[in-house]
Amino acid sequence: MVELKINGTARQLPSAAHTTLLAALRADGLTGCKEGCAEGECGACAVLVARADGAGVRWESVNACLALLPALDGAEVVTSEGLGTPGALHPAQEELAVRGGSQCGYCTPGFVVSLAAEYLRPERTPGEHGEANGFDVHSLSGNLCRCTGYRPIVDAARALGTPVEGDPLAARRSQPAPSARPTRLEAADGTFHRPPTLAEALALLAAHPDARVLAGGTDWGVDVNLRRARASVTVAVDALPELRAFETGREVIRLGAALTLSDLERRLGDRVPLLQAWFPQFASRLIRNSATLGGNLGTASPIGDSPPVLLALDAELELVGPGGVRVVPLRDYFTGYRQTVRAPGELIQAVRIPTPLAPVTAFHKIAKRRFDDISSVAVGYALRLEGGVVTQARIGLGGVAATPLRAYEAEAALEGRPWTAETARRAARILGGTGTPLSDHRASAGYRAAMLEQSLLKVHWETRAEVTA
Amino acid sequence: MSGHEVPPGAAVGRALAHESAALHVTGQALYTDDLGVRMAGLLHAWPVGSPHAHARVLNVDVSPALSVPGVARVLTRADVPGVNDAGVKGDEPLFPEEVMFVGHAVCWVLADSEDAARQGAAAVQVTYEPLPSLISLREAMDASSFQGAQSTLRRGDVTVGLAQAAHVFEGEFELGGQEHFYLETHASLAHVDESGQVFIQCSTQHPSETQDITAHVLGLDAHAVTVQCLRMGGGFGGKEMQPHGFAAVAALGAVLTGRPVRLRLNRTLDLTMTGKRHPFHAAWKAGFDADGRFTALQVQLTSDGGWSLDLSEPVMARALCHVDNAYFIPHVEARGRIARTNKTSQTAFRGFGGPQGMLVVEDLLGRVAPLLGLEGHELRQRNFYRPGECTPYGQPVRHAERLETIWTELLASSDFHARRDQVAAFNAANEHVKRGLAVTPVKFGISFNFTAYNQAGALVHVYKDGSVLVNHGGTEMGQGLHTKMLQVAATALGVPLASVRLAPTRTDKVPNTSATAASSGADLNGGAVKDACDQIRARLAEVAAGRLAVHPDDVRFEDGRVFPLGHPGRGFPFRELVHDAYHRRTQLWAAGFYRTPGLHWDREAMQGEPFKYFSYGASVTEVELDGFTGAYRVLRADLLHDVGDSLSPLIDLGQVEGGYLQGLGWLTLEELKWDESTGAGRGRLLTQAASTYKLPSLSELPADFRASLLRQATETGVVYGSKAVGEPPLMLAISAREAIRAACAAFGPPGTPTLLASPATPEAAFWALHAARTPSPPDAPRATEGVPT
After folding, report:
1. Domain check: are A232 and A247 in the same one?
2. Confidence (pTM)
3. A236 and A246 in one domain?
4. pLDDT of residue B780 exceeding 60
5. Smallest CA–CA separation between B708 and chain A, in Å?
6. Phi, psi torsion values for B635, nearest 5 degrees
7. Which of A203, B91, B418, B683 would suit a FRET pair with B403, their CA atoms being 20 to 30 Å apart?
């Protein structure tokens, strides 16, 4: 059994090790929560979860299809049913309903939840995101609608005011958050652990080298749902304090591997401009509310979005294991297709970004769709220039080989040379020949290679003024 | 009262939210798969899908599945008591002996949980003998693999027309298909009641056909099978033919086990197993006079029908009937044929071949305009149908003048000419970013090409307390049909909307219904609902006439009150009238019926008047294109569309906007890729998930989006002067594709044609702009040149 508070009521729900929150809610009769894709792309299953935020709660929207129920032991969840009823609609529901924001209605509960999360975002202030009510419209980009064309949904978002006095979810924000509860759940399909301490987590990993390490679960959940993947042992590490550090020192910025991307995005602000530009291009708000840097680097996908920027930033990883902590430069981390130097008993504890940061940075993600798509090619740049000459170049690549790559040859073709169109053209040709891009359903090999080349030309074009200035 | 007159204060014409909006937003609206969790003893079905694109099934060993805990039964061919076919053409075996595409279900496992069913399906041992397969449309064309009828639409003599031409061009064009991606995947839930009736809840656009096919599979009479559809989470044509086999499997399982059976496809199964919009190939030759007017069009269309016929023949008929779009072409020879490939059986999808036919001519015009020395908007307008002209299939183009009206209004409201100059100035000032602006028209024929489908029924009850219950044969998939039907019934009976309720669509209430398709739902069912209401009102008017001492013709029904013409103050409540009428033994319910008048169609000759009327529209789209990557965004879109006198303006606007964005997805983003290699994965759909098949999201919403409905557009002879709206707006998105083409062309010298693949993904746009700015592009894929001969 897993205990949750759902729509304000304490519930005990039966759970296996791989039961998703979506399946559990539906089995419990809360069928407003829909499965549209089972991989965190459509948002029809979105629910609010209460997350710790200082001394209080922040309501964040997540995909219930990717959340494993045992990972939510002790959590507080609100679904579209809990926000309002046909006779007493929540403002997000009211605005959506009257504006024609629902047609078939299947995606609608998910949109309502995403709208409500942004409605309840404490920092939302008039003028933010270029909107009179400060609503970040792109917080809805993880919800797909096939009917309306989105215009009435965006209008509903723009019409939302601020929570009135006595709004129960707004009031809940100032009360303490539920804390992640140490959990051990044994079921026919495996054992689920949430160890209370790092030492116990490492001991579990030592005892079960094939254990599945779970943080946000946005990748593993897809495997569980679509490929029916099962782990004999799952170890949830996202609540371990050692993995949740956030330090911005004079020489290094340390980002806990289990902090969600939304958390990092909010806390970093404009401190790392390359990351600030990168966050909005990483999946959707629904995913960023769960996904972590540790997860993105742990899965070590060649098309993961974080390696290109982190390689450009010369990042290092702290790996913690039974023998303590070791620091590995990210450039040496990947060894093969989804293979890394991380030993089975180790966890990624934090990502270290050395400072001062390079002043000229860019992130180019080439994909079919402008937001929330998987890249065909991704390139991160960090350049230092002195007197118009490139003194240091770091270029991180994704999507062009079995692992993320540093483009050493293209970097060498830039370093020591004036940042001119000619230099860029020469280096771009070299960059275009980097890696071994494939043709697949996302893009042709020719396009991928062309995009590498074009990418560097574009960076030069967009930063040429910084040199002459 | 004639059909199109709207009484004062009527419920029709009011901008209302969807009748289920409050249920949608609170998660209370129920869909087929939400009903199963409320049933005890439920079994879950999972298919055993073929790993081969084409193979003979030599043996099926189900015994390993039966030893998986929770597995109750495996349904196989031997279990079918009736006809082993899921379609109406006899070419879709429900349990095949020869699998025809990857994912084709050989048999189905039933278990206590979905997970157990899935494990059971993985345990079934099937022995296959792989056979040669055809995957791409090209492969099928090269192998002359065709199915069904080949048809030709002909007017005049293209040889003569081409000989008269000052310019003759020829070219080829290949356009991609589209996945429906209704958010709710296919779902059926079947049980057998105490009297042996098979009751199926199904997400279907065509409950009567789901009923017919289930009955023939089970070997039962139709009266023993009832199909109900509460609502669908989207259909778009994908649930017109495709649900039947799934419903039949669920029903077969329920009959054989005595337990309710749930069959719901997850997204992967749905994408892998169900049909999509047909991809097309076109080879054309077109003649134009010195002024740029068509003299002739000769075109061979080949659609990729997939493994079975399904609706491919009528889809092709509609494609042929829309290859003219809004243009008068004196000499036409349009041939259509359907390729047979080892892929999903392609099916109906919003527009039903119309978009494909239309895209061929719009692409052609976009390609040749620079060669004719004309801008796209001039070339198009010059070729518009004029009043009195007929289509190539011999139908007069009723209200052709609306094309000019819409065009003129839209160019003015979108500030087209000034913006064209601004775009030119922007392009001159920017080396690496270009903008494109384009306008395209839509003319779309309304009615099923298959004449018999143009009928509908309704059953309207007035209860003794004056409340009204409406049943009709149409299904609700988000298009707002039920909202419109409530408005029609409230208007026809002169009662407040709040006193009318809609009952779920069921085959035991209204029988022999047509699919809710071809945009015809409101026209047909609205006609039937109104007919039923008019019958009841006529009877009530007799009763009221006695009390009011006037002639029945002079009794008025408005907003729940009944009064003599011209004397609203002398009236009394509708519910009092109903009460009186009951006591006078008046029949307070009626069955309504509607058949679209005046249609005739010779399928062989491809001549006649298949359509009741045409729906018109036009759109202007402006895009901005990045020369480094081919990425673009829509800066602004202006749509003007003709829905007659709108029954429900908020609903209709939603259809227009939603149609545009869905069309934008088809034309720019959504790309179906199959494994065409000779490897083990041959025939596999590579884009079988939301992560690989990308729908438009919020980021594709035009930054500035302005949609309006044409005013003063009464369509006489249709319910309350309205017009159909479901499909036509999809084709408004063609202007976005032409705008992308214009932006690509702006990277090169003027006067040269620009070829653009479909969908115009960023990659496709990159190759097109790359070709424009470099004389000899690298190995850029795609379409052959439109070259003067």
Report:
1. no
2. 0.97
3. no
4. no
5. 13
6. -80, -40
7. B418
